[in-house]
Amino acid sequence: MQERRKFSRKNRGATPSVASPDAVRPDSATASPPQPPVSQDDLALRQAKIEKLRQIKAAREQAALRAAEAEQIRQQHEAEIQAAKEQIRQAEDARKAAEEAAREALEQQQRLAELTRQHEDEARRAQEQAQAQARLEAEQAAAREAERLQAELDAQRAAQAAAEQARLEAEERAAHEQARQRAEEEHARAQAELRAQAEAEKQAEAERQAKLERAAFEAQVAAGQASERRSQDQRRSTPSPDQVFAPLEHEPLPPQSRSERRHAGRRTGDTVISNAPAPSVAQQLHANDPWSQLASIQLDPDLLAGNHIITAKREHHAHTAFDVLRTRLLRALSENNWRRVAITSAGKDVGKTFTAANLAITLSRQANCRTMLIDCDMRRPSLHRTLAVDTDLSLGDLLRGDVPPHDYFQKMGENSINAGQQLAFGLNSVVEPYASELLQDRQTQMVLDQIEATYDPDIMLFDMPPALFYDDVMAFRPYFDAVLFVVGGGVTSAKEIKEVERRLGQETPLLGVVLNMAEGTNIERYQY
């Protein structure tokens, strides 16, 4: 209502008054010439116009009032909408607060349930631990009883083993004594035969020298007689000035071999007198032995020691363990008439090549024991690196028959570590992708039989791949007599050992188990 009064005053000030007729008159300065007097019709028309203007003004005022009322209604409507929104927001906040309270109540309930479950679990675990402790105590009591019984059984077995060991040592001493006596008798017999042979050779050489001297003397006498006859014939005849005297011609000498030229002595006429002694029986046997024809390789003791070949310089106290292993191995092979031994392990990097190389070096010091060490790990050949030898040999070529054995094997050469030359190496530097197929081929058996028949080794050591990684050991099983198993301390598990035994089968003889990487073992107490 107040806005309507302001609006009315504003319009009322802008609208000319209809009460004064002079308001519509023009200014006197700009007025036209006087008009005639207005008639009643004109006045009525003017009054109608003024009335119309008043109506328009009223209509405008009504329209302004309606607009103001509409604006007020709009403002009220907006206020109501804002109030409704505020109520909705408050309701939403209340709903969220209710949900948060419900969620907190649920979480509290869940926490209580979790605590209850934890308490129940702890109670159950405590009960299980008590039961387990009771079982453990019972098992420990049973184990102590079993250990006592086992100790008694071990003591009985140890006594039996000591008695058996004493018997075996007595038998071994007797056998060694008999062998020594036989060796002395054979040596004396061989010495007597050699002396008789030497006497016979000396006598034959003397007779041959006498025959050669008689032949030379007779040749000289015949040459002198012929010269005397030619002199007599020359004195009987008168030589002419143009006679040509030809020199005495001899029969051409037969060609000589390199050894004959090397051992040739002095010549008398056309007869050659040799000063070389006839070869002895031992020299002839050695010359005919295929082992002596093998090429020799030189091993560096420092490089061997750097590669942990402790039996080379024998400076490390653990070399005595390999000496013990050598003695037991020789005894087992001799008792069972075996030659071929496969050396393997369950997994890699436990020292099977290290064991094979050290065992071969210590076997080479055993008199009259020919040993062959062959690198049959064609998956990862490493024996040549362990021995610090550069080679391009291939075991696959040997087994396929592409390379003869005398071009493949190399024996131990002269050395400063007192290793015997009765040790031959079969090195390999070529990886074979089908190693197991090659090892179980019939050609492999033929090659091994040929090697054994030609070189007559006492022991053949085969450095095989790990038994659980590949099937090479199982494929090669028909071609070796027994197996030597290498175990890594802290690496090989009992489950792996049982699996290897299962794969090789109960019929495969196990010579022994070599425990490698046993740093905690006190070996120094076995030294003198």
Structure description:
- This protein is elongated.
- The chain is built from 15 helices and 10 strands.
- Strand 1 and strand 2 form a beta hairpin.
- The chain has 528 residues and is α/β, with parallel strands linked by helices.
- The chain has an 8-stranded mixed β-sheet with strand order 3-6-7-5-8-4-9-10.
- 59% of the residues lie in helices and 8% in strands.
- It has a domain at 296-526: P-loop containing nucleotide triphosphate hydrolases (Rossmann fold), CATH 3.40.50.300.
- The protein has helices at 2-14, 40-236, 258-262, 281-288, 301-306, 310-313, 319-336, 352-364, 383-386, 395-399, 405-408, 435-439, 442-455, 472-476, 494-504; strands at 267-268, 271-272, 295-297, 340-345, 371-375, 410-412, 423-426, 459-463, 482-488, 510-516.
A few lines on this structure:
It contains 15 helices and 10 strands.
Helix content: 55-70%
What's the CATH architecture of the domain at 296-526?
3-Layer(aba) Sandwich
End-to-end CA span: 132 Å
- Overall structural class, as computed from helix and strand content, comes to alpha/beta
Low-confidence stretches: 14-24, 238-282, 521-528
Number of helices: 15
Portion in strands: 5-15%
Biggest β-sheet: strands ordered side by side in the sheet: 3-6-7-5-8-4-9-10
Radius of gyration: 62 Å
CATH-derived topology of the domain at 296-526: Rossmann fold
The biggest beta sheet, please?
8 strands, mixed
Shape: elongated
If you average the pLDDT, what whole number results? 80
Topology as a string of helices (H) and strands (E) = HHHEEHEHHHEHEHHHEEHHEHEHE
Quaternary structure of the protein: single chain
The CATH superfamily of the domain at 296-526 is P-loop containing nucleotide triphosphate hydrolases
CATH class of the domain at 296-526: Alpha Beta
**DSSP E strands, number:** 10
